[in-house]
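ok so I'm stuck.
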Amino acid sequence: MNKDDRFAINKKTDLAHVKFRVKNGGRTAVRQPWKLLILIPIYALVYYAVNSGVNSLPMIRGVLWAPVLLLCILGTLIGFYIIGCPWQSSRIADEFRRIGLVNDADEPPFLISVSRDKKNKKIREYLFDGSGIPLSEFEKNVEEIEAVLDLSVISFCRERGKRRILMRAVPAKGDLPNMVNWNDSMLSPESFVLTLGEGYTGPVTLDLRSAPHVLLGGTTGSGKTVLLKLMLYQCVKKGAKVYIADFKGLDYSRFFEENCVMCLDWDSTRAALETLMKEKERRLRLFRSVGAVNIDEYNAKTGENLPRLIFACDEYAQMTASGSRSKEEKELLYTIENLTASVARLGRAFGIHLILATQRPDADVLSGQIKNNMDHRICGKADATLSTIVLGDGSANDLIPKYRSGRFLLGDGTLFQAYWFNEASVGGWSGMG
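replied:
not stuck anymore, here's the structure
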C-alpha cells in the first residue's frame, strides 16, 4: 500500500470515527440527559453570534431564522461529538495504528468510553469498537499496548457478543508486582489473620476468626500450592496444630514434616479427621462449662491457650477420587468425605478450620455440604467455567491473565499477587497467639 492510499484510508477512518463519535454521543445523551448541559455554553455562543449579527445588520432581522437553526443543529452535533468519546480516543487510535493493531482496511480500534471498575476504583475499563479485529490480536499485542498507553493490562474480553472489546487496565506505576518474596516481617500481628499477598491498596489478608474455612481453586500452574504453603506456614508460626493431607508425598519440606501432622494415605487422613471431631466434642464440653460461645471467648475467660486446628488438603480431588476402587476403599472415602463435611459444618466455633485446594471443585469433587461452608473463596487463573465454580462468576477469567502465575482473586473481588514463599529459606519458628 503506497503513501497516498494509506493517507486516503486514514482520512476515511477519521471521518468514520467522527460519525461514530457523534452517534455515540447522541445515544449517551439519551441515557444520561444531564450530559446535555454541555450544550448550554454552545447555545450561548450561538445566541451571542446571532445577536451581534442582528445588531449590526438590522435590515435582515426577519430572515435570520434559517442560519440560527443551522447553527443550533451544528452546535448540537458538536455537543454530541464532545459527549461521544474521551478526548484521548484519537491519540489512542494513532498509537494502535503505529503498532500495527489494525484490520485489513488499516483501521485501528476506536475508543468508545473510559470508566472505573465499580469494585476497584483503581482499575479502568476501556471500551473499544474493535473494527473487526479478533480478540486474539489484542492479547497477542498486549506488551505493545502496555508500552504505548503506559498501562498495565489486566484482561481483554469481548463485550456481550458484539465486536466491542473491553480492556481492563491500571496505570503502569500502579500495577501489581509480578513477584514479591515473603519474609516473616509480613506476618500479621493479629491473632489469626493470614497475609496473602499484595493488592492494589496494600497487603491482602484473610481472617480465619470471622470466616474459618478456605476454598482455593485454579488451573495447574496458577500457584495454588505455593499460596497454600504460605498460609499453612503462618498457621504454624501462630501456634496452630496443622494436619496436611498430601497424597503425593513430595511437595512438603522438612519444616512441614517436623511441625505438622502429615497424612499420606486414606487411613491416616481418616484418623486425623476423627481426631478433629473428637476434639470438637471435648471443646464443646469445655465451652459449656464456662459459658463460652467460641474459642476466643473461652481462652479469654480461662486464660488458657487452646490452639486452633487446621486440616489442609493440597488436591482434594486426588484424596477423594473413587474411580476403580474396591468396595472397602469406596466406603473409606465415603467416611472421609462425611468427616470433612462435619468439620466444615461444625468446626467454626471451636477453632477447627479447613483449607482445601483443588483444580476444579465441582459437584463431582466437592459436595455441596462442604462447599457451602467454605466462607473464603480464592481463585487463581482459570477459565470462565472454573471461575464460576469457585467464585460464583467468571471474574477470575476476566481479571487474571493466562500468563500470570501467583495472581489470585478473592470472592469479594480483591485482586492480589501472592507472596512467593520459598520453603528453603525458612528458619526457626516460634508460636504466636
